Amino acid sequence: VRVIVGLAPGGGTDTIARIMTQKLTEVFGQSFVIDNRPSSGGNIAGELLARAQPDGYTLLVITPTHVVNGSLFTDIRYNVLRDFTGVVNMVYSQYALSVRTSVPANTVSEFIALAKSSPQKILYASSGIGTANHLSAELFKSMAGVDLTHVPYKGSAPAVNALLGGEVQVGFIPPIVAYQHIKAGKVRALGFTGTARLPSLPEVPTIAEAGV
After folding, report:
1. Lower CB count within 10 Å: N or C terminus of the chain?
2. Predicted pLDDT of residue 157
């Protein structure tokens, strides 16, 4: 069974897909093979599924990106509601507002103040245009009244590498990807997008706790 992932290997969606396919292989006694097809908004992956035979042997790990792509792109060759059939909801995920340790901000409020003092100068990474962490960042910009500059990548793993390497200063990163870097002190998590703190990182508040 071919399992298409529209993002780069090593990111949150890819990691979740690999955990799930390993278990499916054990349960069904049949191979489930990951096929990474990173592209802007996962559109190549969506087109591959739309063209595949509807025999159950091609699956797509869909993300919120695919749901909003219809309002972001004019040349999409598939329709999520018409062409796809949902099978199961795999996971709900929060995002960690994460900065390089060199960024002089230890809280969400301090980061907002820093961003307001430097409009458009702070670069933020995302998994690509229309991805959930891109939209999370844009929502944060709107609610906090700050102006950050978007730098899209082809998955959360390349985005995190850009953050670690100093290409960008901030990103909304899936905890499954950011956790090891937060614990290692390479990235500082200022807040989570959800309504409650994560049990695995209880010291990190929610962004809402900062009044946003």
Report:
1. N
2. 86
